[in-house]
C-alpha cells in the first residue's frame, strides 16, 4: 500500500509530524529502529534527565532547605536504585504514550532501520535481516542526532567510567569526583544531578563562559550560583586527552589562550568523566548521498524555508537540520511539515524559540541576547528586576536570580527576555506569547499579574525598561 507520508524516526520531530499528518487525513507510517518510540528526548534525553533533576532536587531540598521552613526531618538518605526506577517508570509511561497515540491515529509503524532508496521509496531493514520496501508520496527525515566527541581527541566512551549523557543517566553509584567536559546545557544539568547527590563536579569548558550563546550577564550570574553549589569551573580550557586509569579516568587540558591562563597543561582525576561537548546530526545508513539529498558543511540535511530538501518529496526536520537542537523546535517543525504536505501554510517562527536549562535555579531565555543586539547594531533598552524584591520568592526561599527584558529603543517591541530563577522555564512563556504577537514592554508591564507570583518580576522588569519598577 502506498502512503502519503513515511516518517523516518519517532523522536519529538517525527512522532509529532506523524500524528499531525494523520489528523489532517493523510495515510502515515513511521519507521523507527529503536525498541521504543520517542527518540532521544523520551528515551535518553529530556524526560529521563528531568526525572533525575526533579528527584535529586527534592533530595537536596530535604537536606538543606526544610529546616528553616520549620520542617524538621532526619537527614535524607539516598536510595539511588529507587531514584533510577522513578526515572525508568517515567520514561516507560512516556514512550508507551506515543505507541498509544500512533494506534489512536491509525499510524502504521515499521520497526527497523529506514533507508531512502529514492524519492517515494523507503527500505526498512529489520533486525531479522529482512528488508521491505514502502512506497510513499512524501518522506520526512527525522533521524535526530547523536553524541559528538571532542574534536581531535580520541575518547573511548564505555558508558561506565567515560560516559556520554546516556551513561550519566544510568550510573549505579554516585561518583566521588565527576569531571564534565563541556559547560553547555546537558553538561550542567547532568552535573547538577550528581552534584546534588554528593559528587564533586568539575566542569572543563573551551569557551570563557558557560552556556555559550546565552545572555552574558545571565551566564555569569548563573556560574556564580553553581559555584556556590560546589561546582568548580575550568574555563577557556582545551581538553587534549581523556584517559582511562585502573580506577576512574583522567582529563588533561591546557589554556585555549596561553597568554590569559597559567600556560601550563593540567590533569584532573575523576571516578567518572562525562563528555558533554554537543551533538551531531545523525544520518548514518540513511542513503541520503545515494538518493541525491544535499547536506551542509556540518553534516546536517540541507532544507529550504519550507523544510524541503533539494529532492522533491523529501523533507527533513529536528536535530538533523539546522537550528537549535531542542525537542520543541523539532515538534514545531513536525507540525509545519505535516501542514505543508497537506497543502496548508505550515510555518515555524525561529525568532521565538524558548531555551531552558532545568537546573536549580532554572535559566530561561527567548529572543535576542544583549550581545546579539549589540552585534546587530540594534538600539535597545534593558529592564531588570531581582527576585530578592519579589514577595513570593521570599516566601518560598527562592530569591536567587533576576528577570531581564530587552526592548527596542524606538518602538518598545520586546526583543528578548532572560530569566535566571526558580520556575524560569514556566515563566518564560508569557514572554514568548507576547513576542509572537509582536508585543511591547509596555504591553507586558500593563498586563495585570496575579499576586503573589514569581511572574510579577517579569512585569516589573518590563516596567523597568521605560519607567521605574514599583517594588525596588
Ligand atoms: P531524536 O529525538 O533524536 O529522534 C530520532 C529518532 O530517529 C531516534 O529514535 C532514532 O532511533 C531514529 N532513527 C535514526 N536513524 C534512523 C533510521 N535510519 N531508521 C529508523 N529510525 C532511525 N531538548 C529540549 O528541548 N529540552 C530538554 O530538556 C532536553 N534535554 C535533553 C537532555 C539530554 C541528555 C539530551 C541528550 C538531549 C536533550 N534535549 C532536550 C534535546 C532533544 O532530545 C532533541 O532536540 C530532540 O530529541 C530532537 O528530536 P528529533 O525528533 O529531531 O530526533
Automatic annotation (TrEMBL):
Cytoplasm among keywords:
no
Q: Which residues form the Pyridine nucleotide-disulphide oxidoreductase dimerisation domain?
A: 353-462
Which domain of life does this protein belong to?
Answer: Bacteria
Q: Does the keyword Flavoprotein apply?
A: yes
> Any idea which GO molecular function terms this record carries?
dihydrolipoyl dehydrogenase (NADH) activity
Q: Where is the FAD/NAD(P)-binding domain?
A: 3-334
List the InterPro entries. Answer: Class-I_Pyr_Nuc-Dis_Oxidored, FAD/NAD-bd_sf, FAD/NAD-binding_dom, FAD/NAD-linked_Rdtase_dimer_sf, Lipoamide_DH, Pyr_nuc-diS_OxRdtase, Pyr_nucl-diS_OxRdtase_dimer, Pyr_OxRdtase_I_AS
Which top EC class is given? oxidoreductase
In which family does this protein belong, per the annotation? Belongs to the class-I pyridine nucleotide-disulfide oxidoreductase family.
Cite any additional comment in the entry. The active site is a redox-active disulfide bond.
Protein name, UniProt field: Dihydrolipoyl dehydrogenase
Give the species. Aquamicrobium terrae
Q: What is the lineage of its organism?
A: Bacteria, Pseudomonadati, Pseudomonadota, Alphaproteobacteria, Hyphomicrobiales
Amino acid at each position: 500500500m502506498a502512503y502519503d507520508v513515511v516518517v523516518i524516526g519517532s523522536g519529538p520531530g517525527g512522532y509529532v509530524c506523524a500524528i499531525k499528518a494523520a489528523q489532517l487525513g493523510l495515510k502515515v507510517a513511521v519507521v523507527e529502529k529503536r525498541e521504543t518510540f520517542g527518540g532521544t528526548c523520551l528515551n535518553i534525553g529530556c524526560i529521563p534527565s528531568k526525572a533525575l533533576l526533579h528527584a535529586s532536587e527534592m533530595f537536596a531540598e530535604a537536606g538543606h532547605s526544610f529546616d528553616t521552613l520549620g520542617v524538621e526531618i532526619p537527614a535524607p538518605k539516598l536510595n539511588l536504585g529507587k531514584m533510577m526506577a522513578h526515572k525508568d517508570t517515567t520514561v516507560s509511561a512516556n514512550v508507551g504514550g506515543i505507541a498509544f497515540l500512533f494506534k489512536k491515529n491509525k499510524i502504521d509503524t515499521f520497526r527497523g532501520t529506514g533507508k531512502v532508496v529514492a524519492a517515494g521509496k523507503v527500505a526498512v531493514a529489520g533486525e531479522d535481516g529482512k528488508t521491505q520496501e514502502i512506497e510513499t508520496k512524501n518522506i520526512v527525515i527525522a533521524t535526530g542526532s547523536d553524541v559528538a566527541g571532542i574534536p581531535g581527541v580520541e575518547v573511548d566512551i564505555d558508558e561506565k567510567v567515560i560516559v556520554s549523557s546516556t551513561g550519566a543517566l544510568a550510573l549505579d553509584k554516585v561518583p566521588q569526583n565527576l569531571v564534565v567536559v563541556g559547560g553547555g546545557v546537558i553538561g550542567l544539568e547532568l552535573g547538577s544531578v550528581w552534584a546534588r547527590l554528593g559528587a564533586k563536579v568539575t566542569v572543563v569548558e573551551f569557551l570563557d563562559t558557560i552556556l555559550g550563546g546565552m545572555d552574558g550577564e545571565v551566564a555569569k550570574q548563573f556560574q556564580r550560583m553553581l559555584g556556590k553549589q560546589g561546582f568548580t569551573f575550568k574555563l577557556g580550557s582545551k581538553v587534549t586527552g581523556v584517559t582511562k586509569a585502573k580506577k576512574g579516568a583522567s582529563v588533561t587540558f591546557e589554556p585555549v589562550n596561553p597568554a590569559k591562563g597559567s600556560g601550563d597543561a593540567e590533569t584532573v582525576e575523576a571516578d567518572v568523566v562525562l563528555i558533554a561537548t554537543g551533538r551531531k546530526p545523525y544520518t548514518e545508513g540513511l542513503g541520503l548521498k545515494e538518493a541525491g539529498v544535499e547536506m551542509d558543511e556540518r553534516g546536517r540535511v540541507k532544507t529550504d524555508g519550507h523544510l524541503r530538501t533539494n529532492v522533491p518529496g523529501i523533507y527533513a526536520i529536528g536535530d538533523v537540520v539546522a537550528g537549535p537542537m531542542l525537542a520543541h523546535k523539532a515538534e514545531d517543525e513536525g507540525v509545519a511539515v505535516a501542514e505543508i504536505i497537506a497543502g496548508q501554510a505550515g510555518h515555524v517562527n525561529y525568532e521565538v524559540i524558548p531555551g531552558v536549562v532545568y537546573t536549580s535555579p532554572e535559566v530561561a531565555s527567548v529572543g535576542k541576547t544583549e550581545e546579539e543586539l549589540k552585534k546587530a547594531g540594534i538600539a535597545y533598552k534593558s529592564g531588570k528586576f531581582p527576585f530578592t524584591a519579589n514577595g513570593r520568592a521570599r516566601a518560598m526561599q527562592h530569591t536567587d536570580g533576576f528577570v531581564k527584558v530587552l526592548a527596542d529603543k524606538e518602538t518598545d517591541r520586546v526583543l528578548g527576555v532572560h530569566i535566571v530563577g526558580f520556575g524560569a522555564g514556566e515563566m518564560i512563556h508569557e514572554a514568548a506569547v507576547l513576542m509572537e504577537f509582536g508585543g511591547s514592554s509596555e504591553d507586558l508591564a500593563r498586563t495585570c499579574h496575579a499576586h503573589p507570583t514569581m511572574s510579577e518580576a517579569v512585569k516589573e522588569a518590563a516596567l523597568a525598561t521605560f519607567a521605574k519598577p514599583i517594588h525596588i
